[in-house]
Amino acid sequence: MGRIAIGFTVVLLVAITGVLGAQDLNWEDMSRGNSDAQAILVNQLDNKIVFVGIPGNVLKSEDGGKSWRSVLAIRSGARNINALAGSVNHNTVYAATDNGLYCSNNLGNRWERIFRGKNSLENQCTAIINTATVVFVGTKAGLFISRDNGRSWSKESGEINNNAILNIDFISKKDSIIYLAAVNGIFKSLDGGRSWARIFFSLSRESKEAEVSSEEIDNSNESSDIRFVKAGNNNLNLVYFSSTKGVYESMDQGNSWKKLSEYGLLNRDVKVLCLEDDSQILALSQLGVFFYTDERWEEISFGLAAGKLNYSTLDNNGNIYVTGEKGVFKANLKESLNFTRNNFLEGYLKDEPKIRDVQEAAIKYAEVSPEKISQWRRKAAKKALLPHVSIGLDRNSTDLWHWEGGSTTKTDDDILRRGKDSIDWDVSLSWDLSELIWNSDQTSIDVRSKLMVELRDDILDQVNKLYYERLRVKFELDNLAIEDRNKRFNKQLKLEELTASLDSLTAGYYTEQLRKLSQV
User: Per-residue pLDDT averaged across 462-481, rounded?
Assistant: First the structure.
């Protein structure tokens, strides 16, 4: 079982060859009047053949989106088209719908329903893949497998059981390695789906399963933090999964996970992952497209007017296709390869204090510097070299003195008299040399160190989000039309709010640096 090693809005992860920077792409509207586009599939042998799912219909284009015709109509019952998938030979097309699984063996010209569940949940097909030997269909009530091209089906039991399936993926060069995302976790099969091992537990579902029986658990997507799983194309050990908390990466087939940075990603709730290459990542959020570089996300969807985004895919010519409320849109990623991140951000970053300087100012103001703990540890280690000093002081009034004068004529002679008081004092020094090996104060420092690290991380997280959000608002403000007074006012107000928030975390350092930079 894999666990997180470090501590949706729809998101698509894609690898792109070359250097891609944050810039506007030239988005082409392929909708031709069709709205509320859901799933999409591009034929990899002929990119002009595109299938798109809209409620109640699967549309096909044979001219790259210049025209569309309906090739599958669902006239009764639930009508959502949840997923479209092809096969190894690229002639077979599958449509996973709320009314069962449909298949066409001649590129969508003729369809038949090859799977229908026993109840409404089993009938809602949510995911589909066809390896060289097996067809897998995920439903709202579990996973079904066919080893005879859909003529007969068996339901997977075990830990997957009746949990809703979110998506399925496999290593294209080794179809025996299959990954599955369900609402109760991420699963892996190394034997073509005959057995499954859970490699990541859904954190939200794990707590619920401990409290109630499996029959009482909500099997909907909303009850889980898991969203999507995607295997690497060329690296057999690489796998990604997305969740409501961001995107995670594993380099050992899911035995351990590392969370990718979320800087610049406006919403951590990531639903869809897709890879063309294993080296670089692109993200599709519900309201934008983002590229992952230098451990941060950068938006490249300015100018994309698709409303709420639903899904995306790539073809083998570097084109990205996006479906959304307002239809289907296409852009060529290669157009932005000569526009690097540094060129794009240079105009905005040159008038801003460096993020590292802002972080250090926030750390200094909050007094949560790592050096503070180091100083405590050094001083605690030297404590054993200093002695414990003890001083004693006592008054002695018991001494009596007698003077023998030898005369009988002097007064007060031969009389026993009390003498002067005497003061006793002492100083003692002691060392506990065992403290050279272990000092009990270290335990207290460890606790304080943990709390300080958590506080510092929270502060830095706030600073980073505010800093990059401010840059984004500056860009949006610069690109607003002059006559759009209302939006301009709101953006300017947001900019001032973010500046004030950064000032509150840095004791006014941010505004002071802006003033100095403006005078240069």
Answer: 83
